[in-house]
Amino acid sequence: MDKIKVAILGSTGSIGTQTLDVIEKHSELFEVELLTANNSAELLIEQAIKFQPNNVVICNHDKYKEVSEALFNQPIKVFSGINSVCDLVKGDNVDIVVAAMVGFSGLKPTLAALNAGKNIALANKETLVAAGSIVKEAALKNNCAILPVDSEHSAIFQAIQGERSNIEKILLTASGGPFLNSSIEEIRNASLKEALNHPRWKMGAKVTIDSASMMNKGLEMIEAKWLFDISPDKIEIVVHPESIIHSMVQFEDGSVMAQLSNPDMRLPIQYALSYPYRLPLNTKRLDFSKIGALHFQSPDFQKFPALRIAYESIKKGGNIPCAMNSANEVAVQALRDGKIAFWQIPLLIERCLEKCHFIQNPTLDDIYSTDFEAKKISQELVKNLYKW
Ligand code: MG
Q: Ligand 1 centroid vs 152 CA: distance in angstroms?
């Protein structure tokens, strides 16, 4: 049997490196066709030498020389720039594309892959938040599967396997992040370092900060709406600090199906790659007698305004979720650059949304211009912080 040829967009990030780990453990089934990275030239070179893909792309043109020189005696073609990523994902040699880039920039290559008929293992939730209807339409038109890599969405996907019945409700679980038990006052004083200290998951900086503000759960709620074609008022966020249940689905007869495991992203990554089959995975197994109890509570919309903003944005619809996501990307970067405080993230997003143009049925061009507009407005807001 031919091996499944995998393209990994964002191979040097947290999801990318764990995807390579899965591929290495099942090298009898998978091989790497394409690796891409934004800036991490050194790790990309190391991965390319080890996994021998046909092509690699370093998006940052300034690092092209470093990568091409390091790989000059390898049978690997080296390219630079996002347009090369969009070209190479279409290649005949690509069977599945792992979309593991961070943020809105993942949209273009994901759409290129879908329009070339490729199945997507989607970790880049921002793509669905920004352009859900367009991405879904492209998948439908080209007969492509979008397989969730996000652990919650993988859990939901696993829970509905074999079901022919309607979903009554999705119970989207959230760890609650590092500020679950903090007061509003403490959140007001929270530092970048505290925001980066997630209690359960070790992830990239963007998603870790999003988890602390709970914007991550807001983005995931919108991601779930598109992936499972369900109205947001049927998606309930449930705080579950142990992160053992990765989400649940409630059916019309009151049955609730859950997927449980110790937190390990290799599980949802591997399931997306091997679906509809399961493969062995060497994770730490659950020991229920040691776990003893699992806890659940409602999220606090007062303490975490990002949740309210996300529900309001998807309710308004059109280009607003895209603008919300773009404003959040600027806010998170501004926090990392020391330009705003953690608690100002949702405030900045709301101020930005007040100023953005509303488009009810955005085209793809409208989505790109909304991203541009929202980022520009947000950057102005960061610069004029004292006027807020
Ligand atoms: Mg998640």
A: 5
76 CA distance to ligand 1 middle (Å) = 33
Q: How confident is the model at residue 386 (pLDDT cuts 50, 70, 90)?
A: confident
Q: DSSP assignment of 180-194, as one string?
A: TT--HHHHHT--HHH
Cα 157–161–164 angle (5° rounding)? 115
C-alpha of residue 104 to centroid of ligand 1, in Å:
17
Domains of the chain: 4-148 (3.40.50.720), 153-262+283-291 (no CATH), 317-387 (1.10.1740.10)
* pLDDT of amino acid 13: 96
Residue 268 alpha carbon to ligand 1 centre in Å: 10
CA of 217 to the centre of ligand 1 (A): 7
Give residue 220 CA to ligand 1 midpoint distance, Å. Answer: 7
What 3-state DSSP class applies to 11? coil
Paired with 235 in beta bridges are 170
Concatenate the DSSP letters of all residues of 272-295 into one string: HHHTTS------PPP-HHHH----
Helix 344-355 / helix 205-213 crossing angle, nearest 10 deg: 90
Is residue 232 a contact partner of residue 222, using CB atoms and an 8 Å limit? yes
Convert the pLDDT of each residue in 32-68 to its tens digit.
999 999 999 999 999 999 999 999 999 999 999 999 9
Q: How far is the CA of 176 from the centre of ligand 1 (A)?
A: 12
pLDDT tens digits for 246-299? Answer: 999 999 999 999 999 999 999 999 999 999 999 999 999 999 999 999 999 999
Backbone angles phi and psi of 281, in degrees to 5: -145, 130
Q: At what angle do helices 151-159 and 266-274 cross, to 10 degrees?
A: 50
- Ligand 1: centre distance to CA 66 (Å): 34
Q: How far is the CA of 150 from the centre of ligand 1 (A)?
A: 5
Gap between the Cα atoms of 15 and 6, Å rounded: 14
Ligand 1 centre from 110 Cα, in Å? 19
CA of 255 to the centre of ligand 1 (A): 23
